[in-house]
Records
---
Amino acid sequence: MIALTAALAAALPSVPAMAQESTAPQEASEEADPGTVIVTGSRIKRNGFNEPTPATVMSGELMANLGQVNISETLKLIPQNSSFQSDATAGTTAGANVGASFANLRGLNPFNGTRTLTLVNSRRFIPTSDGGAIDLNIIPSAMIQRVETVTGGASAAYGSDAIAGVVNVILENNFQGIKAQVDYGQTTRNDGKSFHASLMGGTSFGDGRGHFVAGIEYQKNEGIGDCAKVRLWCAESYDIFVNSNSILPGTTARSGFNIPGSPTYGLPHYVIGPDSKQAYNEPRGVLRNRGPAPVQARNLRFNEDGTAVVQFDPGRFVGEAQIGPRQGGDGVSTYDDSDIQTPLRRWVGYVYGQYDLTDALQVQTEFTYARRTASSTNAVVPPRSTNFFNADNAFLPESVRTLLNGAQFSFGKDMDGLLQAYNESDATVFRGLLGLSGPLFGDWTWDAYYQYGRNDRHQQRTGTRVNTPFIYATDAVDEGLVKTGVANGNIVCRELTKANPDPRAQGCVALNLFGLNNADPRALAYAYRPVMQDFKYSQHVLSGSVQGTIFDGWGAGPISAAAGADYRVESGDVWHGDIPDYNDYAFTFGLDYAGEIKVLEGFGELNVPVFRDSAIGDLLELNGAIRYTRNHAKNRDSGEQKTSGTTSWKVSAVYDVIPDFRIRASRSRDIRAAGFRELFLRNVPTEPWSTSGIVNNWWLNPVASQTGNDGTPILNGGSFALTPEKADTTTLGAVFQPRFVPGLRFSVDWYQIKINDAVTTLPGQRIVDFCHQFDIFCDRITFAGADRKDITFIDARQVNLAKLEVRGIDVELDYRLNLSDIASSWNGALNFRILGNHQYDFISQANPAASPRDYGGQSGPVVDGGDFNPAPPWIWNAFVTYDNAGFNTTLTWRRISQGIYNVERIGPEDEGYDPTQPNSINTNRVKGATYFNLAMSYRLPMGQSDTRHIELFASMDNIFDRKPPVAPGGGGGGGSNYPTNPVYFDTFGSKWRAGIRVRY
């Protein structure tokens, strides 16, 4: 039922990225009988399987050698994986998956779904996110035997979601004995503290007819706080600024790249630089530089008491929308509220059992229970730029009221000193499985199982602005002055002085935001309230398969086959509580929605050895697989239903020209049906003129402003009109294992993935751009008139793009050298391993009418709000390990090459750079980075047994404390969450971990 390390070792020529094998003799007994093997990517069981698709294997022993305690750390060692969702990418986002870590091969995961299938023991697992992904935190890392990764289409073998590949986590279900571990780690700056402990045990029973394994694991990460406050490189606050239509302080004049004679003319349209602050985000409050306030009443900051004003320095690059990043001036850093690492706690329990009921029938069972809690700091939503205050506000000093002369004013304030906003998640997962297996005839076997899984997640965000109550609370007046014309000093909400006040004004307390600490806590509680989300998801799976030899073939080897059927029912319900006026909140988790997905699949696979030991080669083996998938979805809110049928297939070959040299190739048609969130998500339209409710209207201003000139509601969410994605994946590679250099393996594989009808989210601005440039998606925009001068609504729900196309090269070298081969007196062994990925194409085309754009090599901001994540041109991971008796030391080298900041921009490094052009930027490169990690361990024997020992270990990551390069806009949902890209660059700094393991 599980693939074995020993059997995989027999297939070394076929697998390009094997585990770092230094298995101690005492661990050999933990391996099961290697006579039956399942290798990820195939459903055929057999000896010495030769995998034709590029695969990477990371052993549990390598994880232990490196001091890793979470599988998400291990996946970062695989260059093909993009850690877009992890504890290092929360930033200021308030998403429901805070603290979770997802596998994301080739960076192809859409923001609301997944194209990487995560398996546990070669079986599907209950999704832990409404996008269908599996949180790696719920997998017991201490019990991992190995992690197999197939970086190519595997839909024919496993079904939907495997377009980018499969991550298969194999657990130690044949473990004998007891193993315990306790460890602690932190950064060298005394933050990021992490405690971890695990315990597992296994034993046989019933005279060897049964086996039982159980384990528990606990981890607590305290996290790393607000970026600009705890790291000097972040306090520099590099960001990207927009140099167009900037309003000059004290005037109504504009400055920009396209305005000759203006102060910033000569600079390009986009400027990357330090000292980023958000426009008019100031703790004491400031009058913005916009009408209807007269010029003399703009750019004024209140004192701490809120009784007077002084001049405010707004910095550079503040556009007409009065929002977004600006350079310099007064105020706090943009990154003051971006957590570097999410605080996290996780508990995992796992039980496995098997028993031979008869010689021909075995029963297996698995149970997993896990809980994860996480939280991140969020910025408190301030007054929007179009939330105008009245000149008769009772808290205004008379001097300001005089300057206003009755005019309204736009008010900016950093609210974080008054309230704290947290995004908190508490998720529990249960999975239970009951399986049966046995022989049929000959070498044919059968297996079947039923699996039930359930995920319950509670999400809460505190300190969320309620728009109407906020307006009522900040519209403070003197009650006597309003009612009688004579002031009586009783300051109340204006709405309450009306004859028939809005019922929502009940409980309103006047809110004074001028100065510091002048706000009444009751007023804050009235205007800012928590929002929540409960997500419940269940999964039922029935699966059965048979496999064996059809006939012995014609001397090249047996012709084998596998066939089976899978039936899966998944249903989810998302509820947001009975919160009054939920649509009136500045931030929500979306609206209530529910749906059900039923999947029925049948598959078959055939493996044919064509020749062996022939004059034209040592081996030629062909493999083919086909799967039909019927997907039925039902929206439980609207009652809509839809059914789709899709076929996936795969053909592959391995050709051993000589024993030293192998050629392998595969071609597959892979499919992915839209998932739960992509189909059923319902959202509230964004707030007009907020940072997410504003676009550039090219018909209003044909010269690119990129600062937003048209505020409009934008509707995001799922769409029941989505069709299944189809992908064509091609791989071609070679494996070289020269007999004249024992222990050396080298492989290189070329890959191409073409996805048609890719499900994605187009931001509102992208829809406007496509309509203006190509006259597509215009039906998603509502205009107030035929002249298109005013956009009143944008439908930005999920769409099927024309295509995504990814190409690249995977490289691996592995060499093991026994030092005694050099000198008989030398002890121990060295192992060298290098993994590399070169992604040279990442092409996106929204529509056949639109021009394709190649994002290959981009390592700056995410694309389309994180709907796919391109990689730097080259990513390398290398390991050098020395083993000698009970001592092990491993040096890890990771290299991320220089990349392009944004392929849509042209900088001085690019051909055609012109600072007067709309796509100009002052630099369009992201520097590369090199990291070194070092780990050591030493085993102390307990008695005479090789299976009993105490092991001390320690590790240091980023030992030279390399700060990340500048790449603003990385991570999170596409905003300026960090001045770098934490998906690829380390933001924690030097960190160490030390602990003890006991094996008995």
---
Amino acid sequence: MNSKTLARLVPLPESGYVGNDEIPLLLTTKITAPRRGRGILPRPRLEQYAEHLGERRISILKAPPGFGKTTLATIWAERLGALGHSVAWLSLDAEDDNPQRLLYYLSAALNRACPQVGNACLGRSTDLCLQRSEVLASLLIEELSLLQQPLTLFIDDYHCIDDAVLTEALSFLVHRAPALLHLVFVGRRELPEGIVDHYYADERLEIDSAQLRFELEETRDLMRKGGVQPEQGGDLNLLQLASDGWIAALRAYLLTPSPTSIRNTPRSLSNLFDDVLRQLDEHVRLSLYLVGLLDKFSAGLLQTLLGGVKAHELLGVLRQRQLFVTALDDQHTWFSLHPLFRDHLREGCLRLHESQARECMLGAAHWFAEREIWLDAIRLGLAAGAVPQVREWIEQSANTLIEQGDFSTLVALEKRWKLQSDDCPLSLKVARAWAMGLSQEHQSAMDLVVELEAELGGPGDDPARADLYWEVQSLKVMLWALDDRYSLVSPLAFDCYAAGRWRPWTREVLVNVIAGAHLRACQWEKLYALPPVEAMDRGNRGYFLHACYRQSLYALGEYYQGRVVQGMASLDALLEHVDEVYSHGLSRPNPVLMALPRGMKAYAHYLRGEQEAAEVSLQESMPYICMGSFIECIAFTHTAQVRLLSHQSRFAQARRTLDNLESVALARDWPRLQARALLERVRLHLLERKMREAQVCCALLQQLAELEGCDEWVDRRYFALLARLWLALDAPQCEASLLDEGLQLLDWLQSRELWLYHTEMAVVLGLLLSRERGSDAAEPLLLTVLEQVRHNGAISLLSDVPCNEAAALWRRLCPVSLQSEFSQLLGDTQEDCSAALLALTVKERQVVQLVAEGKSNKQIARDLSVTPETIKSHMKSIFAKLKVDNRAQAAVMLQQR
């Protein structure tokens, strides 16, 4: 108790002795709810449970340390108090590990909330240790039965009390308390069965670490609230994966927000883990160290590694103490430790018990291999150093790993120890080539294809050899398609398909390639006539790879045809099916493949002006999108991100995004992607009024358009012409030949039903025609634009004209007969800036206003009678809320409101 303030809630008898151990001294801090810290992030999805506490007799908040249990409980208590409910609070500690003392404190907490409750128990302080817990509980129940309104009691840190003591003190009270008493338990482990077994499921509310974890959106909001703006998508996802939504980890990273710190466990968390481990018995601690070597585990696996008794004891401790463990399936068969805790254990185990660790990993690898869970078997076998055994397993499982989407394992093996051509069979060599191609090792894969072709010669008469020959040809088709060389693809793809000598998995590859060929030829009927993808739920989820590519191709076709809503619906159907297929199993969909439909959805959301939804999809797809080989998806995803950033006046970050995009384009030799990056650079330069830079990029685009290549698609020509039209819009006059060239391309786009490109170019051409040739010349074209935008909702195509005052430009150049309709559509895209400004406090809006007037921090501090440090704090918050990088951008947002 030391220096804490002591207070007695009832008068002592004259003969009483304050120091007597029989008479507890009451700390008012223990029966007062903790004060909430500043800067707590609102979490409506959890806070709304406060309204349900009155419907449940007992509620339990259980999670390891650092998950925000007490913070959430205090928020619940405040909300109940604001609604006029009676609320009591009791914080427990190790000194309360006595039934009578616990009940005495509980009576004091209730008495503080309701003066008519707890007096009988408090009056027996002099002979408290002589009272049976049932007697004290009965006195409380009698007083509680007289309550006329609900009373909610929060009991925090119940894990500090031994289970037997907790049961003896509370089971009688909990089971017999009147209906108006509601109990909320907050702690780090399960409540003893003796307390909760009396209540049915509908009388209990239980929230654990799975619900307390921060979701991706909450993590982003927390970072912004702390004044940190992680790079959109990449760093945020790394942070979410590293922390697994654990608030203690997120706050630790917030204090050290450099990108490298995401990959290292902060010291504060390591100290917390060590403290948790010190509280365990030594033999349990050693078992837990070994479990930290496993990405996932089950009771059966632990029994094999540890023995039945130790495995049962460890699982009991993990569940009872909530030791950062998560169930991976609905049946609670498989489990995983929090990634940071697992890394901490693995490092400690290899440092302290290296030989035992390697023996454990090898045993687990054999266990997984016996059950043909090859990915885990190979990873653990490699970690244990069992290279010969792993080679044997990989020969058994190579095709299975490819078809299940685990091709990255084969590539990892290739890098770990180079497989020579003379020491692996043809079938394994083919599997290696597939793996390298799917993992973007295109040149290495093509080299292996050339080697295989030389070894196989032609199809020959041997059926097995013919099958391998046509599979190698199919692999070559895929590599050409992923390299965007469709002029080479089509003839060979159709020949391979017609040969009919393919596995079902290879057949899906060929159909995907043929679908891409039909799309680039704008042969929409042939595209839709292709057979559907093999069902994912037929026991082999590797077909998920084909489903993602095929559905993304179909969505791309819908977008090009101006059917944005239909494209989004097909992607939603795919994602819903994926959730259904993967919801009950251990495996998770490959994030690289999931990035394809999510990236396509991000672009559609952006087109429709749904910027927040677009940002969510970008956060999920950006870290992985460049690992795939779908050029259009990479282009559209980056376009959505760059244009979102430009709307937020975050031009520096937009340029960094384009740098990354151009690096991918150059590395993969994709002129079309390079052209897309240059087009977006032109747009950014025009927005920033950098005319010379925009002209240089436009000239580079023209060179790319004239480049002879194998992609045979309209992109490069279209982007070059669109950039010239953008520049003409900013110039005082436009050449007649440029307008005629644009109208000719519009006719071509219309003939191919490429309505997305048609609408984007028609917007600029319509405004230019209105300026150069009058409203009558522009009205038919702009009517077509209006019809298309109404149909597909792609309102961003109207506001994305590279001009800082797009709305004013439309008012100036749009024909009078169409102005009201276009103004209505454009108005829907101008709300984000105002909404962001409304999120500022009154003081922050004053600061932004003074910034817009050109005043320095010192001048603003003097005007507002605060310190310059306070202004710095305000500016940090303003930048986070407005999503800007500097003072000038904040001022521009205020002026554009």
---
Amino acid sequence: MKAVFDIENKQIKISQTIQYQNTTQDALQTIYLNDWSNSYATKKTPLAIRIADEYKNIFHLAKNEDRGFTAIASIKQNNQDLVFQRLKDQIDVIKVELKDPLKPNESYNIKLEYIVQIPSAKFTSYGITDSGNLNLRYWYITPAVYNGEWQYYSNKNLDDLFIPKSDITLEIEHPNSYIITSELDLINKKQLPNKQIVKLQGKNRNNNKLFLNKGSDFKTIQSDHFALVSNISDEGLPILDRVLITEKVTDFILKHFGEYPHKRLLLTEIDNVKDPVYGINFLPKLIKTYPSNFKYELKLLKIALHNYLENTLLVNPRKEQWLLDGIQIYYLMNYVQEYHPDVKFLGNLAKIWGVRSFHIADMKFNDKYTLAAMSAARTNRDQPLTMQKDSLLKFNTNIANKYKAGIGLKYLDDFINEQVLENSITSFILDNKLKQTTTKDFETYLKSKTDKNIDWFFKDYLTTRKQIDFKIKQVSKTEDSITLTIKNKRDNSMPISLYTLNNDSIISKRWIENITKSKTLTIPRNNANKLVLNYEKTVPEINPRDNWKSLKGFFFNNKPLQFRLFKDIQDPYYNQVFFMPTAEFNNIYDGFTLGMRAYNTTVLRKLFKYKIEPSYAFKSKTLTGSASLQRTHYFKKNLFAINYGIAGSYTSYAEDLFVRQIKPSITFFFRKDDDLRSNKRQTLKFRYLDIKRDEDVNNVSPTFSPNYKLLNIRYRNSNDNLINFNKWYVDFQVGEKFSKIAFNYEYRRLFQSNRQLNLRMFTGTFIKNKTDITSDFFSFALDRPTDYLFDLPYLGRSEATGIFSQQYLDVEGGFKSKLETPFANQWISTLNASTTLWKYVLAYGDIGFLKNKFDDPHFVYDSGVRVNLVTDYFEIYFPIYSNLGWEIGQPNYDEKIRFKFTVDPQILLGLFRRRWY
């Protein structure tokens, strides 16, 4: 293949010959080619959709010249043009009709002429950078794998192209000012006045990374067996330290995987950014949580393991990524266990006074893998390890499934015992190096090395979401023996380890298998005074709190109460209560509040949660606060969860006026069990509100009651996406003197022209309304609801003037202008619309009708300019024209400007969470 780089025009002109041998018994009339450079061509490619699915607008808003494509001039066989076409909805896959069928063991030769327009590197890290450097991967056309069926799929920024191993020859022509870096072997280099011609070769390759830099930051450290070429940040380590660490890492890999079949292994900072060592990268570099050599060592090892396996163990990474991930994490854990057994999860922070008293400070570094995997399982977001990579949530792709695969192999290793698994992995890699292989091959190979039944691992652990949870249910003892019943709380066939202990000393360990629902067994006592399941925490069990029984008597089976300052990880041997000081500003009436929160939630989510939060409000000079009890049940079906509980609070609702709320509720959450990446959600919520407010002596209405109770039922349906957003709900309320129903619909679309359209419709009507006609407390609001449900984050809910009265929330009528008829006690129907003027500046317009008793319907409208600083979180509205006329020219215009913003950290965290879950 000859590639001429025109970096000034961001183009590569390629003349390529592909020779492909049919190693199957099928005759092939049609072949498929991967052209992932063309995945950047439009805003509707699978890559573009994937980036948008993770709430990144960088690709959608990019200029056309920043997006790449492939322009194919010809595809020929024996100098005859072949018919080819791009697949519908997969324009990065090419279907080619051969002149004659390709018979078994025969080869074809096709010649391609095409130009690659290089995309910006800001989308996937691969492409051309702002400084003019080229980071390339999947940059030329490759044949797809055929192994009985065609294995082709589109680029989704998962770095998982599946191609057959091949012998590669590249002749690259590039400007003199650039330095080339590749894993391929340099054959020769020809220097000309304005360019270089470099010839590279490699045998049995499946990787096509290429870097062209004006000043290369890659460094090569040669070991006795192969060279590590890396531009990973070295943490400022001296060259001697880096050499020693590199030798240590390469020796470890060679010991377990055997000789690397190539001369150079390329490790890049892009690899590190895309798949960092999570845990050592969270805090700023100024905080020395871990020694620099430890950080560099683990980064180097993790990427080296990944790239070694990716280049030698040829599995389909889209469908069987778990095998590569599992082996990588398994050996990463083994390495830390062998060379750094005393390193804590918190690193040096675990030694600091105050921090070291936390249970999390006792965690070893390797414990983080179970913690992260359980964080997905505890929130019902875990997914099968054998699920296709592009169907996984981002958190599972990057973290949870990788870790679950690794700790699953550790679990299997402990169950089989005697280093059978580790030796089998080594021999499997040696036997299958540079051969296409599968999970089934690994299963067959491993079963040939052990007599134990390991079907549970390949059936339940890999292919399902079944979780592990066992319990010691009943125990009876004599001086010589113990009879116990172990209950399997989940429907699976996985084994559990049973330990007998004398205090903290292990007396015996045995694996209990085939526990369908429960199993009773009798074991020797041998002076044991405690029974514990999964004592060494090798089994990734979702709830270890009921894993032990004391043989000393009933009193010793009760978990003691433990009080902790701040949230911690769960200690299964205690009933923990956490305390956290709070400092908040919830409204202008209470002002700044200081308090103390008592709660039971740990780092991993619990099904039963309570929270008690008394606080002192400095503005109102009163003790305020809230309390809640909640219980959640998760399901492995489209009914995702049921949550029920009760919440209460006591806060100010106006100057020197307080409200007491009690709100029991039950909520049903619906989500596609087989497609957790889908943002489609439904909720059905039933709640009862008991509200008691201090009576406002300034309210002269004799019939107005400050206290009320009502039933609220709301069904909500949403599909929250960056490009297409829609959400609607139906809300029904029944009170003593009224009942009402309302419908709300929101739609948002980001067009290919980068213009945004927002539509919102609200309509509501009273079924019955016997409230005081002089009061609009329960009425529908045009621009600012009274919020008698106390749901909205008003800072000054009772304000009629001043900056806090200008806070805007897009609920009910959704108008921005304050018109002369702001409420409706019969019915209301409004439409809110806005569209892009320029970047984050939009024009808005609202129209509607509202009807009050004894009055004709009113037609209302307003319009203005909306500035989206952060959509849905921080927006400003400037009214221009409405029923009031030209507002922009009226007195006190600054009082007409409305704003929307949130200070709730949980809501702000939603901006982060939605990209990962």
---
Amino acid sequence: MKATQEQLRVKLQEALGAAFGRDYAEADPILVSASNPKFGDYQANVALSLAKQLGQQPRAIAQQIVAKLDVSDICKPPEIAGPGFINLKLKTEYLEAQLKAIQTNTRLGVTPTKNPQRVIVDYPSPNIAKEMHVGHLRSAVIGDCLSRIVEFVGHEVQRISHVGDWGTPFGMLIAYLEEAYPEALTTTESLNLGDLSSFYRKAKKRFDADENFQQAARQAVVNLQAGDEKTLLAWKIVCQLSSRAYQAIYDLMGISSDIIERGESFYNVLLPEVVEELDKKGLLVENQGAKCVFLEGFTNREGEPLPLIVQKSDGGYNYAATDLAAIRYRVQVDKVQRVIYPVGGEQTNHFAQIFQVGKKAGWITDDLEFVHAPFGLILGENGQKLKTRSGEAVRLQDLLDGAIAHARADIENRIKVEEREETEEFVSNVAQIIGISAVKYADLSQNRTSNYIFSYEKMLALKGNTAPYMLYAYVRTQGISREGKIDFEKLGADASIILREETELTLAKHLLQLDEVISEVEKDLLPNRLCEYLYQLSDKFNKFYENCPVLKAEEPVRTSRLVLCDLTARTLKLGLSLLGIRVLERM
């Protein structure tokens, strides 16, 4: 009920101005949702904050505000509680009118922003020639979700995958393939990404132990940078093979197909310009042969200022230089107003450093927002980083396949218990949607900044804050439609909405909070807020369904309750779609 909150905020500010003078007309009324429904729906706490300023008791201030406050079209008469809290309870007829207004609205009352921006979300950014592993899950899932929400709010979103596709790792791999498997460097058909990852590990082992191989790898990098035809062809084959394998995983996960791959190689030609510009602006300092920018607030173990190396002493560049080139390009060419980096929390210092350099260089100005959205680790049942028994990171493909297999076993068991007959196509489709949804929802429902323990059993549970519970709530609404042979789309815009029971009122209020929740997530980039909203919606709908007969109710209550079912279904479907989750008609 963002629109409702905004109306109440304006009315409270008008009352403040009328009670204490024009200077107070823009004071923050500190309007929040009531912590306990028995006190009302909203609570204004401004009286307590003004006590010292006005030299009056908070309760006396609250009384003067209420005397000038006209909310009769929205709320019941305001009540003052405790030391000076102003409690506001929405009128039933107001709620009915609000539901009526969103009944035929495809966006369910969520109005697009009046100030659209151009936004880049930087994800999932794997490294070419390496298989995606569990460490890439959160960036892919969170990045996709944030892109969907920011886009739904009305901003223009570019999804850019800043892939690692340049530098020494490629020299190592190409040198190894030239030596051990030269036919692989002629076509993308002779290898798969698993082979490539295996070769990469062998190449790294050789690089660490063999000086002659180190020289060959470095020469391959030189050849690549010089545009050597044979080396460039090998590089392109590796990149194409990797991109194809990544796309298969994105498709399985339901990640948007609008991702633009823009690797480190894209910015390679711009790196000398970045160094030259930083030097002209007096930001570069030579330190032990390297060109650096010294940063404020960062020191080494000895307490000395810590430099950010932009160009190494041998003339090469590191990924900090590439990230700076990306910032500069995104501002000057992409013309963005906001860039969101959903990247692990271990990179927090790195982003603080490159953002500081970007500001010193004048690329990131006060009207632009570059924000790192850090996330925690995925842990195993032992509380440590999720790894295989051999100590390697779990392949993302294996993780997803495992979720689908667990979901399938659960579905087959339920079909057997319920003595149902279902086709193989139905079972496979439901298993995939539930399995993938469970993995994504388990990730998004956590506070982004926290670590969490990966557990198929917990994420596939039919009860609690899980994807299956959300999907089941949606399925229940569609079951009502099938049982009553009701076409929700034909209920009619003129259908009356009548809220009599407490569970109806509770559900109605929650349905009208969708716009507020989406607005919050778009600002603070915490998808778990939307997950919690959907979980509460499912819970409130289930209580409504258990306490209020729908199909057996008399008219006009029957149609009113069908509208509530339809609005719940559409809200669940929209909310889950913003999380990147598809719904099911049956489970």
